[in-house]
UniProtKB/TrEMBL annotation:
<keyword id="KW-0503">Monooxygenase</keyword>
<dbReference type="InterPro" id="IPR049574">
    <property type="entry name" value="CrtA-like"/>
</dbReference>
<keyword id="KW-0560">Oxidoreductase</keyword>
<dbReference type="GO" id="GO:0004497">
    <property type="term" value="F:monooxygenase activity"/>
</dbReference>
<protein>
    <submittedName>
        <fullName>Spheroidene monooxygenase</fullName>
    </submittedName>
</protein>
Length: 244
């Protein structure tokens, strides 16, 4: 389905380490349940990491996420009362929801184009960038060696509000989420920082990815505890209560 969805949500939960056995049970049971909720077009439950290395040591067992593509905002409004939403709320000691509108999307995820074919255009205010890739195992070591300079540059990038890694499995299915003060800051990092530009140049020649997706979103709302996102800067476009 190439229709651009009205709403994409990113739920992120912070859980205590003692809840890890229950979290792993949820990660086994809930992907299918999440996809079966009314109005869900596409959904992924994700582990997270610091985004500094993408190796096993980067995983954060205290933070988990769900990325969901909805038919409508009305359908999304039922998530909190659903069995999946209630189960994660019971586990979490803090949580945040980011409401997103797709702006651009290139590539596939699990053989699908979940965000359709957005027309692009300018965004006034914060933007979220999502990168996701399935690594070719024989190229994984080369990829991991290339990550630290890019991650270090990202951490120091002007306009970065938050960033963390995401993954569907401990190894091989990797991604990043980053939130930026505005579109200009994101573009400046993506195309003007030499570390990231070098990684872009190497991607087609190195053949790191068996599947890849790059998407940008307008951040329409941030509801909850934004520190769960790993906020690294204060943006005057985001109010103290977490709302745009």
């Amino acid at each position: 389905m190439n229709t651009v969805p009205d709403l994409v949500t990113l739920h992120v939960w912070q859980v205590p380490r003692t809840a890890l056995p229950r979290v792993l049970t949820r990660m086994a049971l809930d992907p299918r349940r999440l996809r079966a909720l009314p109005g869900v077009r596409f959904a992924k439950l994700l582990g997270t990491g610091t985004g500094t290395g993408f190796g096993p040591g980067d995983a954060d067992p205290t933070r988990w996420a769900a990325l969901t593509v909805w038919d409508s905002p009305a359908a999304a409004a039922g998530f909190d009362a659903s069995p999946v939403g209630r189960a994660w709320a019971r586990l979490a000691r803090a949580a945040v929801r980011v409401d997103l509108r797709p702006v651009t999307s290139r590539g596939e995820w699990s053989g699908r184009r979940p965000f359709g074919d957005p027309a692009g255009g300018r965004v006034a205010g914060p933007v979220l960038a999502l990168t996701r890739a399935r690594l070719r195992l024989r190229r994984a070591a080369t990829f991991w060696r290339a990550v630290p300079p890019v991650a270090a540059a990202l951490h120091a990038a002007p306009g970065l509000l938050a960033r963390f890694g995401v993954g569907e499995a401990p190894l091989g299915w990797q991604g990043t989420v980053s939130v930026w003060r505005d579109q200009a800051d994101l573009v400046a990092f993506a195309y003007r920082r030499p570390e990231h530009r070098a990684a872009i140049t190497r991607t087609p020649t190195e053949g790191w990815y068996a599947e890849e997706l790059f998407a940008r979103f307008e951040v329409r709302d941030v509801v909850g505890d934004r520190t769960v996102l790993g906020w690294v800067a204060d943006g005057d476009t985001i109010a103290e209560d977490g709302r745009v």
